[in-house]
């Protein structure tokens, strides 16, 4: 209504009462005037309490008429407050995660002035609406937002009022900021139309965190405010990349590419993340795609050049590093030149069979930057094999980078004269053959032949392997027929074709043993063990041949190695015992009363004790007490040593049952171990560890 004159005192009181009534919510009759003022309502936000004005007033409604010639003091102001937060009208394209200008509807032009420090609440049809997925946010006049708690319905309530419905809205996959307060929504699912999907908006200083889940929640964890903006995803992906979080960066670049697949920079960045994850084949494809989209993209060319250096492809690397019209990166160019120099020397050394130089140069090439090249790793394995280091060669073969086939191998690219993939199978075939895995070796060389059927080395290797297999099979048949001389010739023919085959050397050693030519048997075993140091069969045959040659120390040494490799093999243990006895005899030591495989003998009398320790072989005596827990634990280990060292006499004395022995031997602490030889004590150990005890037993067992 309008007033034509000054308001009388009565009129002011009536107006004040009227305003008070209009700013009330009647709980009894359910009348909602829809112009509520508010006092603080606790929604249980765990983020921060909501700020309120003194006296509980946060927002008032200006109701004075524009046509009134008078005014109600304190109800109006001459202009908008500079302290009221507002959304900028500028267009946001800075990829900072803020809403773009198109996401927010413009404010109404007809605005009203408010007193500084006061906001405004709206009646029906003007509640703030959060919308995502390219929609808009309806903002009230002057982009002014309430500074208090916002209920699910959007109303501002005063303290003491209750929310009739216990259902809560669920704000999913997005964030929105309202005023100064911090509101966290979540919980039960809401009715259709009350859920905001995948949107994000910034309103003044507050924070609204949505419940629910989906891709937006994952994006928020990675720092993405707007998961529909590929530039924002790229920016956050770059931050993750700088921190070394390559998987997270890759995921963000993937999403950016899904939105904008034609952006060359996204593919180039994805290649960088793949390089960090050492997925080089995929990284090559991504760089090639970036160059296809933008042929003049210098960074993509340089990144692809660096990739090719890592893969050992120097010609491809030079083509992209030295991109026409652009200066190459001096660091990468120097790396390229260094790798190329060592590769050239490696090729020359391999061609003349200088395997030590080959190994040195290939290691230098890998250290210079070609550390992801499967072919160089294979060359290293081949050089180790030729140097008779089979275990190291097999380990190097196992560590070859596994790259799935990709299309960046030009048809003219060769590695030591053969196609790159063929060379990998070529080396594998040689190593498997030397390990005696003939079937695996044959399968590998046949695969190499299918890939590069015109290569001479592959063809010769395939032919030789067929002949070696035939010689091996023929030799085995002759050995079974006890035609040992002919079997030696058959194995020798196989060795002529494959001089690095440890299995053929060992098989021929068995033939020499049967023919009584033990020296030649030892020689072939030495050749086999030079290629494969832990070859059990070769150790057994060499030890047996040394026994025949009465080389007891060498036999004992081999059997002790075998005892560690085969701790449960009773035949090896017995052979070791007899070799140790023979060694003692050869040294002039008395070896009577020595038996294989005895138990720990209990000694109870002093005379029995003195007779037992008078043996020329070592006697280990355990002084113990049945009630002592530590003695019980070490006794179990002593049983193991008794089986492991059959040439040693193991005795035990219970000091509680035989105090005379303990007194005679001055035993005061248990468990105590003493080692005797010919009645004299040579070693004493008090409470030894199992390792110390075994070390002493081993020392005195020979």
UniProtKB/TrEMBL annotation:
SUPFAM superfamilies: Thioredoxin-like, TPR-like
Gene3D superfamilies tied to this protein: Glutaredoxin, Tetratricopeptide repeat domain
Domain of life: Eukaryota
TPR repeats: 230-263
Composition bias, Polar residues: 80-93
A Pfam family: TPR_11
Spans annotated as Disordered: 25-126
Name of the protein in its database record: TPR repeat-containing thioredoxin TTL1
Organism lineage: Eukaryota, Viridiplantae, Streptophyta, Embryophyta, Tracheophyta
């Amino acid at each position: 209504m309008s007033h034509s004159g000054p308001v009388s005192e009565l009129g002011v009181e009536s107006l004040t009462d009227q305003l008070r009534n209009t700013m009330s919510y009647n709980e009894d009759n359910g009348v909602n005037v829809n112009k509520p003022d508010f006092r603080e309502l606790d929604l249980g936000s765990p983020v921060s309490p909501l700020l309120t004005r003194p006296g509980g007033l946060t927002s008032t409604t200006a109701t004075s008429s524009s046509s009134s010639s008078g005014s109600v003091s304190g109800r109006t102001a001459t202009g908008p407050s500079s302290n009221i937060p507002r959304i900028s009208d500028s267009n946001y394209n800075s990829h900072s995660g803020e809403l773009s200008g198109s996401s927010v509807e413009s404010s109404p032009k007809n605005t009203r002035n408010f007193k500084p420090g006061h906001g405004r609440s709206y009646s029906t049809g003007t509640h703030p609406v959060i919308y995502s997925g390219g929609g808009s946010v309806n903002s009230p006049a002057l982009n002014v937002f309430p500074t208090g708690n916002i209920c699910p319905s959007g109303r501002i309530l005063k303290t003491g009022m209750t929310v009739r419905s216990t259902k809560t809205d669920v704000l999913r996959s997005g964030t929105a900021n309202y005023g100064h307060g911090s509101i966290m929504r979540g919980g039960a699912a809401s009715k259709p139309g009350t859920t905001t999907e995948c949107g994000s908006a910034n309103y003044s200083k507050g924070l609204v965190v949505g419940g629910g889940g989906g891709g937006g929640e994952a994006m928020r964890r990675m720092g993405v405010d707007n998961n529909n903006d590929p530039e924002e995803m790229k920016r956050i992906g770059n931050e993750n990349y700088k921190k070394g979080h390559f998987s997270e960066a890759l995921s963000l670049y993937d999403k950016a590419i899904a939105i904008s697949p034609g952006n060359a920079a996204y593919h180039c960045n994805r290649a960088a993340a793949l390089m960090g994850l050492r997925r080089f084949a995929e990284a090559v494809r991504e760089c090639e795609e970036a160059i296809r989209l933008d042929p003049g993209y210098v960074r993509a060319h340089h990144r692809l050049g660096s990739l090719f250096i890592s893969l050992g492809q120097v010609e491809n690397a030079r083509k992209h590093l030295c991109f026409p019209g652009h200066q190459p990166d001096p660091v990468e160019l120097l790396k390229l030149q260094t790798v190329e120099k060592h590769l050239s020397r490696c090729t020359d050394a391999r061609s003349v069979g200088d395997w030590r130089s080959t190994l040195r140069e290939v290691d230098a090439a890998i250290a210079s930057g070609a550390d992801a090249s499967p072919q160089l790793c294979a060359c290293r394995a081949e050089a180790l094999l030729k140097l008779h280091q089979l275990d190291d060669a097999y380990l190097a073969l196992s560590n070859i980078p596994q790259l799935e086939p990709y299309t960046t191998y030009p048809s003219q690219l060769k590695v030591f004269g053969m196609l790159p993939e063929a060379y990998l199978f070529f080396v594998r075939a040689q190593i498997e053959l030397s390990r005696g895995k003939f079937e695996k070796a044959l399968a590998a060389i046949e695969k190499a032949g299918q890939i590069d059927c015109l290569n001479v080395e592959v063809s010769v290797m395939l032919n030789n392997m067929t002949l070696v297999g035939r010689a091996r099979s023929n030799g085995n048949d002759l050995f079974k027929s006890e035609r040992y001389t002919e079997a030696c010739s058959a194995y020798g023919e196989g060795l002529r074709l494959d001089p690095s085959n440890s299995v053929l050397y060992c098989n021929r050693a068995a033939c020499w043993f049967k023919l009584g030519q033990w020296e030649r048997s030892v020689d072939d075993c030495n050749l086999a063990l030079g290629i494969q140091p832990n070859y059990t069969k070769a150790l057994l045959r060499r030890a047996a041949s040394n026994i025949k040659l009465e080389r007891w120390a060498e036999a004992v040494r081999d059997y002790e190695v075998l005892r560690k490799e085969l701790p449960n093999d009773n035949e090896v243990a017995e052979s070791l015992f007899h070799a140790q006895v023979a060694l003692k005899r050869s040294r002039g030591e008395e070896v009577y009363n020595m038996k294989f495989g005895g138990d720990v003998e209990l000694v109870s009398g002093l005379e029995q004790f003195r007779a037992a320790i008078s043996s020329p072989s070592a006697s280990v005596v355990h002084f113990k007490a049945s009630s002592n827990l530590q003695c019980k634990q070490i006794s179990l280990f002593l049983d193991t040593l008794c089986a492991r060292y059959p040439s040693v006499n193991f005795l035990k004395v219970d000091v509680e049952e035989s105090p005379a022995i303990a007194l005679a031997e001055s035993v005061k602490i248990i468990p105590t171990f003493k080692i005797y030889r010919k009645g004299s004590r040579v070693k004493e150990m008090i409470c030894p560890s199992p390792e110390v005890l075994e070390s002493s037993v081993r020392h005195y067992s020979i």
